[in-house]
Amino acid sequence: MSTVVKGGRVIDQIGERVADVVIADGRIAAVGPDLAGDQVLDASGCVVAPGFVDLHAHLRQPGAEEAETIETGGWAAVRGGFAAVVAMPNTNPPIDCAAVVREVLALGATAPCDVYSSGAITVGRKGEQLAPMAEMAALGVRLFTDDGNGIQDAGLMRRAMEYAGGLGVVLAQHCEVDSVAAGGHMHEGEWSSLLGIPGVPAEAEELMVMRDIALSRLTGAPVHFQHLSTGGSIAMVRAARGAGLAVTSEAATHHFTLTDEACASYDPVFKVNPPLRPADDREAVKEGLADGSVDAIATDHAPHSPDAKEMPFEQAPPGMLGLETALALGLTELDLPVAEVVALLSWRPAAIAGLAGIHGGPIAPDAPANLCVFDPDEEWTVDPDNLASRSRNTPYAGRRVRGRVRHTIVGGRPVVVDREIRP
Amino acid sequence: MRHLLSISDLGVEGIEEVCRLADHFTEVSQRSIPKVPALRGKTVATLFYEDSTRTRLSFEVAARRLSADVMGFSVSNSSVNKGESVRDTVNTISAMGPDALVVRHRSAGVPHQVAAWTGAAVINAGDGWHEHPTQALLDCYTIRDRLGSLAGRRIVILGDVKHSRVARSCVRAFTALGAKVTLVAPPTLLPPAVDSWPVDIGFSLDAVLTDCDVVYGLRVQNERQSEALLPSLREYTAQWGLTVDRAARMKPDALVMHPGPVNRGVEIAPEVLDRPNATLNEQVRHGVVVRMAVLYLLLVADPNSP
Questions:
Q1: Residue B247 and residue B159 share a domain
Q2: Does B107 touch chain A (CB under 8 A)?
Q3: What is the pLDDT of residues A254-306, one digit of tens each?
Q4: Do residue A340 and residue A228 come from a single domain?
Q5: Does the interface ipTM go beyond 0.85?
Q6: Contacts of A190 in chain B (CB under 8 A)
Q7: How does pLDDT run across A37-94, given as a tens digit for each residue?
Q8: Structural domain boundaries enclosing B55
């Protein structure tokens, strides 16, 4: 049984060409003109890209299955064109030892996309004692983070970077100095001042970016910055890369599409950490993505039940859905060629997650058949009631966007066909 | 206007309308039976998630003087202690059909959320650091009563502006009516991005004291010390307290105002509170008639007006 993706424009790191792609036995069998297969997936008018890789998804399992499971999050992922996601460790219990990594990987084995587990840097994500990174790395964990928390203690972060350097893994930091963030709930600025909501200044993020760049210089270890949200952070990352340091970073979709003004509704659907920032920062994030200072678009997909997002703004948990809207928002809001948006969603994050060769292309014979086929011109309206995620907390309800996933193929299996999931 | 969530919902005309109605209800209050049937058959529910004495009582008295029925809901003896969400509580109360819901909560924006969940008119009785619109309205009414008008008046708002919902409502209301507002506080107690507010900023109370028409003092909480926002309350009082000496340098007819409750001896000296130009009791009295005006405006006045 073979499948042919027919009539599309193939885009990967090799370049662009009009070609059909034949898939058999989970791998790409042939790429070229006028190919045939048992099952035909129409790709006319579409881009055929490597399946996307999300460096930053909260799949909520174990512990918060009412908001999402690895399976439902997996369906949200493939509906958004993602063939692989890295699951964040702020679960309950947290992913801070081999036992929980094994559970996540076992649940992920039956999910429609490839699920990779991150691991916590410290026990319980408490920032006090190093977690057993080697035993987690032995199970394939390549990205370690206390996401949701930044590592507050600079000395501890230094030792974590030294230790991780020996394992060949990357530490990813949620940059936020707690004492400066001081329990804020939105960006500290004109809007927080008017709305009377305690704020988090941009500097709470930037101080930790600055510190960890210095620690990367000290230790020689790589560091990956998660969901950068401020112009100052991006300028520092740009300079650090210019100086040859092993610094990578990601930006979340909402930080290049929304601003802190959205919080004026007091709707907790707009509460996220790091918070939505003013327009200048939003533009700086776009520039960072455009000039390569920021390597990847990440979703920071953070499902929450409707009950949680109906709490008062200051008590509601932060986070918003992202997997099913990331591609469209990248195409709609970033003033970039389609191939650049594809790069930000596929081979660049794949390299950071240590997945090169498995995910992110190139689309060539013998490569694993992980593909996303999308129509870059199709317009659609985001509808919270028409999402594969178990939760509904998208900040884009009613928003008109351009670019829609038509088919997603993971390991040779078409899991999304003609926009619909195929359980 | 369907709800009163922020002073911005009223605008200049709305504030003036409230003051005109309050004049009428002041006259009503002086009658032997200070009660009118304007809201007979209507129900006003109070939903207070935070302790309050004067605001809650003031709303209840105002509603009763308009002949409304009053439903009280306080957190301490309710199902909130059993973990009920705000939305479920609002749904429950709404099912009993109140015409107005008076809401106080420690978090900014809760009255906005409640307004989306209930068919009743929602009145913000204080939400986090955000707003306390009826307090600002009674303060406008008090200044207007004493000084004739707010236009061109110099009003100093003194103290912990950052954490003050009263300050946010007062700045909006006072400036809308043409007053010149100066915030005086240690910089740690000023809100972020305060240069975007339509006010002047001062560090020194002494520099602005002699030519202002109103000093509006705000409560300074003890915990500001442990949050490293103040070295000590003693230092605060020395630098920013309205002491007897400082009060003596104010213009003779200048007012001393405070939303209460006062930290006697911290933000204002006890002797200053007892002077005839201190308006604290008038503010409380005006609170009733202003809240009658707000209830009347929301529940009786033309429902089709914007």
A1: yes
A2: yes
A3: 999 999 999 999 999 999 999 999 999 999 999 999 999 999 999 999 999 99
A4: yes
A5: yes
A6: 193, 196
A7: 999 999 999 999 999 999 999 999 999 999 999 999 999 999 999 999 999 999 999 9
A8: 7-132+284-299
B208-267 residue pLDDT tens: 999 999 999 999 987 777 788 999 999 999 999 999 999 999 999 999 999 999 999 999
Q: Which residue has the tokens 């929301």?
A: B298
Q: Is B108's CB within 8 Å of A188's CB? A: no
Residue A361 belongs to some domain of the structure: no
What is the Rg, in whole angstroms, of the alpha carbon atoms belonging to chain B? 19
Structural domain boundaries enclosing A410: 2-47+366-421
Q: Does residue A171 sit in the same domain as residue A37? A: no
Q: Is A300 a catalytic residue?
A: yes
Q: What residues of A are in contact with residue B106 (Cβ under 8 Å)?
A: 314
Within an 8 Å CB–CB cutoff, is residue B168 touching chain A? yes
- In terms of domains, do A231 and A332 share one? yes
Task: Give the count of domains, chain A.
Answer: 2
Contact flag B85-A197 (C-beta cutoff 8 Å): no
With an 8 Å Cβ cutoff, are B107 and A314 in contact?
Answer: yes
Looking at the fold, whether A262 and A135 belong to one and the same domain comes out as yes
pTM of the model: 0.96
- Please indicate if any CB of chain A lies within 8 Å of the CB of B48: no
The answer to whether B109 contacts A190, with C-beta atoms less than 8 Å apart, is no
Q: Which amino acid is at A93?
A: P
Provide the 3-class DSSP secondary structure of residue A371: strand
Output the six-digit token pair for A251. Answer: 């930006």
Q: Give yes or no: residues B111 and B88 share one domain.
A: yes
A178, A185, A188, A194: best mutation site toward chain B, by most B Cβ within 10 Å? A194
